[in-house]
């Protein structure tokens, strides 16, 4: 064992020296000392000092395989001749008062790229929070303040992160696909710090794509009055899907009432019959099937209308899209389905925002959809995160390429 091995292998800086080693409870302890010439006053960096005893401390160092290793170091206490103070010298292989070497923390971070926080913690025999804090530290340095100077087009979204975290408001750079802001809640105020940041950087947005709820639209209009509000395909379909869910629930409830049950009762075998065989049955049997199908008709119509809705964003020209939108709204009006009719009113109100899509080239909602899917994955991993700041950083860093990304 030598000083040079600790230097090359364990990141011990120059000025320290290997003294001895011992083995305790499956751990390896390297006793080290700092050479006299390397000692300085921790306050003014002066070398003019007198030794005034020491205080022994233990630091986690890089493990050897699955064997924990420690540095045992009697940290010298020195009296500075310049500033007269008596204090411990700075421990150069650790940060502040931490009990781990810088190398050890670096290893935890490196492992985080391939293993979950839980796995890293188990391997290094440290707590989950210890690994989390190392990740957080790293993420904070890199992602706390995303560069917004060149921001032109953004999408604003709300995501539900479970009971603990509640709703988060996400702002996405539509050009790069990078999340540039994460706010708490889903109200217009959730965006205030973001608008403030834009103001300070003197950024004027060109496009703000939002969901169809009033709070974000209003907040964007108040704070970036020159930006055009665009209702993109992703958000419109998302809202329509929510309406479909309501419709399906309503219908299920109706079917559970006595009337519905009576209609649905015993028609399963009728549904299985081939049409030619059905023709041979009594008229009353056919009537029963028609009644049952009638019950499901609104759902079938609504599904069909969703497919037609998509086409509004796939037209060659704004004019074609405009015609299609009018046609869709009219169809919805006569559909007789309550939720579809109310959705049509929303669409009519947002007509300008929907058609604005055609005024900006390359405004596909693929990036919004992609980021939404990624956030859902983070949601799954992050469900247990109690640390809100950490959760935000995880979202801000989710565009990170695979090699650099940290596991949850
Ligand atoms: Zn000093």
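-> sequence recovered:
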């Amino acid at each position: 064992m030598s000083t040079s091995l600790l230097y090359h292998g364990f990141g011990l800086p120059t000025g320290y020296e290997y003294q001895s080693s011992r083995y305790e409870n499956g751990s390896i302890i390297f006793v080290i000392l700092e050479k006299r010439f390397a000692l300085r006053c921790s306050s003014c960096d002066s070398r003019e000092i007198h030794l005034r005893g020491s205080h022994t401390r233990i630091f986690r160092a890089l493990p050897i395989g699955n064997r924990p290793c420690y540095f045992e170091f009697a940290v010298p206490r020195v009296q500075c001749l310049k500033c007269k103070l008596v204090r411990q010298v700075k421990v150069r292989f650790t940060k502040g008062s931490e009990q781990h070497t810088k190398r050890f923390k670096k290893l935890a971070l490196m492992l985080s790229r391939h293993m979950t926080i839980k796995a890293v913690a188990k391997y290094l025999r440290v707590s989950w929070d210890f690994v989390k804090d190392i990740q957080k530290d790293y993420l904070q340095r890199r992602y706390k303040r995303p560069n917004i100077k060149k921001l032109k087009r953004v999408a604003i979204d709300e995501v539900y992160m479970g009971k603990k975290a509640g709703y988060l408001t996400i702002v996405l750079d539509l050009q790069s696909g990078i999340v540039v802001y994460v706010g708490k809640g889903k109200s217009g105020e959730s965006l205030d710090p973001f608008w403030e940041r834009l103001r300070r950087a003197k950024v004027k947005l060109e496009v703000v794509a939002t969901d169809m709820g009033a709070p974000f639209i209003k907040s964007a209009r108040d704070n970036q009055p020159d930006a055009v509000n665009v209702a993109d395909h992703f958000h419109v379909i998302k809202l329509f899907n929510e309406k479909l869910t309501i419709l399906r629930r309503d219908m299920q409830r109706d079917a559970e009432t006595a009337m519905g049950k009576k209609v649905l009762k015993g028609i399963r075998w009728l549904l299985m019959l081939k049409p030619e065989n059905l023709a041979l049955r009594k008229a009353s049997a056919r009537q029963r099937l028609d009644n049952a199908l009638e019950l499901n008709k609104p759902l079938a119509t609504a599904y069909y209308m969703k497919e037609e809705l998509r086409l509004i964003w796939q037209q060659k020209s704004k004019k074609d899209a405009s015609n299609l939108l009018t046609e869709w709204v009219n169809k919805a009006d006569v559909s007789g389905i309550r939720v579809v009719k109310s959705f049509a009113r929303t669409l009519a109100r947002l007509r300008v925002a929907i058609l604005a899509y055609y005024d900006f080239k390359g405004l596909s909602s693929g990036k919004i959809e992609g980021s939404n899917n990624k956030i859902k994955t983070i949601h799954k991993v992050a469900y247990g995160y109690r640390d809100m700041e950490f959760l935000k950083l995880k979202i801000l860093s989710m565009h990170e390429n695979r090699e650099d990304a940290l596991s949850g």
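Strands lie at 16-24, 27-34, 49-64, 67-80, 86-88, 153-160, 167-173, 179-184, 207-210, 228-231.
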